[in-house]
Design goal:
The chain has 249 residues and is of the alpha/beta class. The protein is built from nine helices and nine strands. The chain has helices spanning 2-26, 49-60, 72-81, 144-147, 160-168, 179-189, 192-196, 220-237, 239-244; strands at 28-34, 64-70, 86-90, 100-102, 107-116, 133-137, 153-157, 174-178, 197-214. Strands 1, 2, 3, 4, 5, 6, 7, 8 and 9 form a nine-stranded mixed sheet that branches. It starts with a helix and ends in a 5-residue tail after the last helix.
Length: 249
């Protein structure tokens, strides 16, 4: 009798676990990224690098995807409210880690300042930038020391393209973002900017790009384990590199 009862308990546990796993895989994951080309964009191939990587791997793992591309602030507030389960296009910043658990990185990029061509602006450390007015994206995370540097003159803008145009027009001295984002914008969105602007040679930081899962998302640990395992496999067999070729300028 005791052995039969034990088998019954084991069967219930096994079936419950199987049902939970099956339910998670059958539920559509609500994923959001912001308009941040080439990493996110409604008109980009596969809606950008981040969604391409995320959907390819998660669908391979058996998950169904419901993806959205919205402005950054809307994406950020939406993930906090629970409107979305996953959010892409993330640097590993301390504030984000308060309510998100991050995946392993799938891309790396330098964050650099942009100045007018011919400008002598440079820096060795952040205080060197005190004299200059710097355009920063609303709610953007760049690098922790810069983000918290209240002694700098920062002017908030809607997005990086607006910041670049303000530098070109002489309204601010600098702006900044991922070199991949800036290069995309002045080669695809406004080619005149490439004739007027240039990178400050020294990078502010080299950042890895991740996605984040809500900490209170049921099935978070399994989802991340599935993604990280398949990401490692794709890096090893060259299929990640092949996927990224789709997004080359």
């Amino acid at each position: 009798m005791r052995f039969a009862a034990f088998l019954k308990v084991i069967s219930i546990i096994f079936v419950s676990g199987w049902i939970a796993t099956k339910t998670l895989a059958e539920t559509k994951l609500k994923i959001v990224v912001d308009e941040w080309p080439p990493f996110g964009g409604a008109e980009l191939p596969h809606q950008g690098i981040s969604l391409h990587v995320m959907t390819t791997i998660l669908e391979k793992a058996g998950y169904k995807i419901d993806a959205s591309v919205v402005p950054w602030e809307r994406a950020l507030q939406g993930i906090k409210r629970g409107d979305y389960d996953l959010i892409g296009n993330l640097f590993a910043d301390t504030d984000l880690k308060k309510y998100l658990t991050l995946s392993e990185p799938f891309f790396q990029t330098d964050v650099k300042f942009v100045r007018k061509k011919g400008s002598a602006i440079s820096f060795a450390k952040l205080p060197d930038l005190k004299p200059y007015k710097i355009a920063v994206g609303e709610g953007y995370f760049y690098e922790s020391a810069f983000d918290t540097a209240s002694f700098l003159k920062k002017q908030v803008v809607t997005n990086t393209l607006q910041g670049l145009r303000m530098v070109a027009g002489g309204r601010v001295d600098l702006t900044l973002d991922s070199v991949d984002v800036v290069t995309y914008l002045w080669s695809r969105k406004d080619k005149s900017l490439a004739q007027k602007l240039e990178f400050v040679p020294k990078a502010l930081a080299t950042r890895s790009i991740h996605f984040g899962v809500r900490k209170n998302f049921n099935g978070k640990d399994k989802l991340l384990k599935d993604f990280n395992r398949l990401l490692k496999q794709m890096k090893s067999d060259g299929s990640l590199e092949k996927l990224l070729l789709v997004h080359k300028n």
